[in-house]
From TrEMBL:
Residues 27-37, 74-91 have a biased composition (Low complexity). PANTHER family: EXONUCLEASE-LIKE PROTEIN (PTHR38462), YPRB RIBONUCLEASE H-LIKE DOMAIN-CONTAINING PROTEIN (PTHR38462:SF1). InterPro entries: RNaseH-like_sf, RNaseH_sf, TPR-like_helical_dom_sf, YprB_RNase_H-like_dom. The lineage of its organism: Bacteria, Bacillati, Bacillota, Bacilli, Bacillales. It comes from Cohnella thailandensis. Residues 1-46, 74-93 are annotated as: Disordered. GO terms for molecular function: nucleic acid binding. Residues 207-377 form the YprB ribonuclease H-like domain. This is Ribonuclease H-like domain-containing protein.
Length: 534
């Protein structure tokens, strides 16, 4: 009997707790009368029946109260979520992943839209420029005028491949087994056959591109999160710049597919250090995304190499921004350096604020436009048009390098004018380049002009604190072997020997210098013997 009383006590306590919990919603009904009787007449059986009835009643009361509380809490939470969603209607999702159809206001400000293809979605920005638009000292339309003149530059950069392709056209093709190297060539579409010789350049078949990446290396861990590329739209007479962006790595394959579509029909990729950086990075990403061979890649036209050939010592550096400011007349205001692009992209991924990327977009756009301007600049340098006279560089080294670069690419008439200008200059900076210019005349068999420059260089050497004997040796060789003037040749050899004695000696004598002195003494003795024989 005592155990039954304990059960009743526990049930009464449970009922009391349920009443307290349910009181804010609705008063729970009172306990059944059967629980209030002291002891049932039928003993244990009757009491057990009463306990079961009481438990059922209490359970129903508790469920009703709990259900009412749950419904009220759910309604309150729904209202709060709706209010929060309305308040944050213009707030992007965290970690750079936005809901479908959502674009941050900073993206909308730049005219960015969501693009999609069979592999997914990504962000795309498209800007069109009329050909009259000036980017620096050139209108963008100058690309149309001078693109074909870039053929010598493109040929030198792709010479091995062009020569091999020319050999293949002359010999019947042989079937070969697919090697491991071939199995990972890129799926680039074959350029259309226009009937023109390989290496020919048409403005509409150039693709200017620049990437913004998460790192500096070319390994597989470096991801190009933004790819900017430009091209000439012949039908609309516009220069078009397009920029793609991935909001997360899952969009990379869709972005790369879009790039491949834009590369269709292009013959040359125009970059600035893209042959050794941008393109290898993209190659790694293509392979990691599962593409397999389906064609040959375009030729490269990398403007870093001609820039270094002309300005490696004249300018503080050959960075694109430096060349823009010093040689192309391009001014950037409040530009975001490319080195900050990875950090700004990480910030965007962390908080979803697209305003971090506004400066990166503008920087990348300017880079692509500068590639178009560089193409016009180098094309204008190489143009055969007599009316297109290039400006004569002020710095003597740049003058020499420009002349040598033009001659290397077959523009001898233009280079001759610059070499003549260099020979006329008498300043100390120009004197440094007299020997290289004289060596050019020597190779061309124009010895009179070479001798004139050697004599000027020899006079300069005799007045120098640390003299050079190169000009004296060249004159001694010239008068001995070509003019047969042994006395004059001996005179220059003797003066060269005297100059070696003026060279400073630090510690032990340099073996190379000793060899030069021995060679001069041998030459001088030979010339004296020839002179005595008449």
């Amino acid at each position: 009997m005592s155990s039954l009383r304990e059960k009743l006590s526990r049930l009464k306590g449970l009922s009391s707790g349920a009443e307290k919990e349910a009181r804010p919603v609705e008063e729970a009904p009172a306990a059944p009368p059967a629980l209030e009787s002291s002891e049932p007449e039928d003993g244990g059986a009757a009491l057990e029946t009463a306990v079961q009835a009481a438990a059922a009643a209490i359970s129903e009361t508790t469920v009703q109260a709990t259900s009412q509380l749950t419904d009220q809490a759910a309604a309150q939470a729904t209202d709060q979520a709706t209010d929060q969603a309305n308040a944050n209607a213009d707030t992007p999702a965290v970690s750079g992943v936005a809901p479908d159809g959502f674009l941050h206001p900073a993206f909308k400000k730049l005219g960015i839209v969501e693009e999609s293809n069979a592999f997914g979605a990504f962000l795309l920005r498209r800007i069109e420029y009329p050909l009259e638009h000036r980017h620096g000292i050139y209108p963008l339309g100058a690309l149309v005028d001078y693109a074909a003149c870039l053929k010598p530059v493109a040929y030198r950069q792709n010479q091995a491949r062009l020569d091999s392709e020319g050999q293949e056209r002359m010999t019947p093709r042989k079937k070969k087994k697919l090697s491991v190297k071939d199995a990972y060539r890129l799926p680039l579409p074959e350029p259309e056959d226009t009937g023109k010789e390989p290496g020919a350049i048409e403005p509409g078949r150039l693709l200017f591109f620049d990437t913004e990446t998460t790192g500096l290396g070319v390994g597989v861990g470096n991801v190009p999160f933004m790819i900017g590329f430009g091209y000439y739209d012949e039908g609309r007479a516009r220069i078009v710049v397009e920029q793609t962006l991935i909001r997360h790595q899952g969009e990379e394959k869709a972005m790369l597919q879009y790039l491949l579509e834009r590369m269709n029909g292009r013959t040359h990729l125009v970059t600035y250090n893209g042959r050794t950086f941008d393109w290898p990075v993209l190659t790694s990403r293509f392979i990691l995304n599962g593409w397999r061979p389906n064609g040959t890649e375009p030729y490269h036209l990398d403007f870093l190499h001609p820039s270094r050939a002309l300005w490696r010592n004249t300018l503080e550096s050959c960075k694109l921004s430096r060349i823009e400011a010093e040689r192309l007349g391009i001014e950037r205001h409040e530009d975001v350096p490319g080195s900050l692009a990875p950090e700004l992209y990480v910030r965007y991924l962390n908080d979803g604020d697209a305003s971090h990327l506004e400066g990166v977009y503008l920087h990348n756009e300017q880079d692509v436009l500068t590639l178009v301007t560089l193409a016009a600049h180098f094309g204008a340098l190489l143009a055969d048009d007599p009316a297109n006279e290039i400006a004569v560089p002020q710095a003597a080294e740049e003058l020499y390098r420009t002349a040598a670069w033009l001659e290397l690419h077959g523009r001898t008439e233009k280079s001759e004018r610059l070499f003549s200008e260099l020979a006329k200059r008498g300043d100390a900076h120009a004197e440094r380049w007299l020997l290289p210019a004289a060596d050019r005349y020597k190779k061309l068999g124009r010895y009179e002009q070479a001798v004139e420059l050697w004599e000027r260089a020899a006079r300069k050497a005799e007045d120098a604190v640390v003299p050079s004997i190169a000009a004296h040796v060249e004159l001694a060789m010239h008068y001995e072997h070509r003019n047969r003037n042994y006395r004059l040749a001996a005179d220059y050899a003797e003066r060269a020997l005297e100059l070696t004695c003026r060279l400073p000696v630090f510690g032990r004598e340099n073996p190379k210098r000793r060899e030069e002195r021995d060679a001069l003494e041998h030459r001088l003795n030979r010339l004296r013997r020839k002179s005595e024989r008449g």
